[in-house]
Amino acid sequence: MDFSFSSDQEQFRKAVADFAAGRLAPGAGVRAKSDVFPWDLVREMATLGLLCVMTPEEFGGQAISEHVVLGIVVEELAKADFNLASIPIVTNLVSNLIDAFASDRVKAELLPKVAAGDMLVALGLTEPETGSDAAALKARATRTSNGYVLRGEKTSITALPSASAVVVFASTDPAARAKGVSAFVVPLDLPGISVQRFDDTGYRCIGRGALTLDDVEIPHDALLGQEGQAFTNIMNGFDYTRPLLALTAIASARVALQETAEYAGVRTSFGRPLANYQGVAFKLAEHWTELELARLLCYRTLWLRDQNSPHTVEAAMCKWFAPERAFRAVHDCLLVHGHVGYSTESPFEQRLRDVLAMEIADGTAQIQKLVIARGVFGREFGTLSSSEPTC
Fold first, then answer.
1. At 147, which helix (H) or strand (E)?
2. Cα 58 to chain center, whole Å?
3. Is 182 exposed, middle or buried (0-12, 13-18, 19+ CB in 10 A)?
4. In degrees rounded to 5, what are phi and psi of residue 147?
5. pLDDT tens by residue, 204-215
6. What is the DSSP letter of 190?
7. 281-289, long-range: CB < 8 A, 24+ apart
8. Can you tell me the distance from the alpha carbon of 182 to that of 211, in angstroms, rounded to the nearest whole number?
9. What is the DSSP letter of 211?
10. DSSP code of residue 209
11. Residues 248, 316, 157, 59: what is their CA dihedral angle, to the nearest 10 degrees?
């Protein structure tokens, strides 16, 4: 049993860490409060091969098959800039879907641009009335002689304000529910498309938004894979994006703990450093322990995927446990700093708002616990019927 990175992985980790500290950490706080997407830094991330790690080299990717490497990428980036760490999660998930299921035309047209940081392709799954029960989509894709016509709404789409295309999930057979969900690559400059940006409490430079599709016509080869296979494909993808999202929250919280420990060593109260008080020291120790446990679970989950072993339950464990514990840790760090921590000039209030987003993305804690209960104890556990998949 080996809990260390390989020599190649460690070398890669150091390269990403150096880049993040030198290029992303400066100005991260300013960017977090801005609505401007940092294309220049995204393109620098692309030069390191961080946007399409698993994409074949012919399309500009690194052709690395290890999901553990994706964990290294997002963890090291999140230490410096929580918001920008989310971009490789989106680009790697979408590029993997396109590489596995798209037509040759779509691959050649999109993958090199995504790998180079010249465009973003977002993921449109959630709907206004359909969140965790993603099989119950109301968006429809109707087959025509020329392709498909899309109608419906999508919401909570990460990076939509800066995206050029979206992978849209829509039902081609409503009666089949999950088995009737298909996915399509949809350029955002087509007639019948409108985009709305959200005014979020965090994640501002990345942005989220909603998409309306009003009789949008797309060609046959915009379909990803076969009709009715998209739900299974995206759930499979969430099995590795969930630990990745968890790692961004963990990384941000661990940096907060380290900064708070330094502050507690020099800030005095009643003539003694705060670090001398068990009320402070024990809290920091407890948070560090829980985050270390969560971090190891995330990497074990990614390792299980690399071994082609089942890991859906472990991914759900990562997703509910880590963001919740990370939020608590950052919250306590803010309180240790007192009134200074509550100021917008400190990084803690921003981290608190950013980490909170991870409690929602890719399924809430309640959904993750349902996945765990069903996976461990049987599908009769939970409030939904066994025919109703959830994400």
1. strand 147-158
2. 26
3. buried
4. 155, -115
5. 999 999 999 999
6. S
7. 283/332, 283/336, 284/257, 284/260, 284/332, 287/253, 287/257, 287/325, 287/328, 287/329, 287/332, 288/254, 288/257
8. 17
9. E
10. E
11. 70
Helix and strand tally (H, E) in the chain?
Answer: 11, 10
Instruction: Please enumerate in sequence order all residues whose Cβ is within 8 A of that of 57, keeping only pairs 6 or more positions apart, or say none.
Output: 63
Residues 127-171 pLDDT 10s: 998 776 767 899 999 999 999 999 999 999 999 999 999 999 999
Calculate the CA dihedral of residues 33, 36, 37, 38 and round it to 10 degrees: -80
Tokens in use for 321? 């446990």
Contacts 24+ apart (CB under 8 A), 336-342: 336/260, 336/263, 336/264, 336/274, 336/280, 336/283, 337/260, 337/263
DSSP codes, 91-132: HHHHHHHHHHHS-HHHHHHHHHHHHTTS--EEEE--BTTBSS
390, pLDDT greater than 60: no
- Paired tokens of 9: 């992985």
CB distance 59 to 381 below 8 Å: no
**CA 275, 279, 282, 286 torsion-angle sign:** negative
Q: In this structure, what DSSP letter does residue 346 have?
A: S
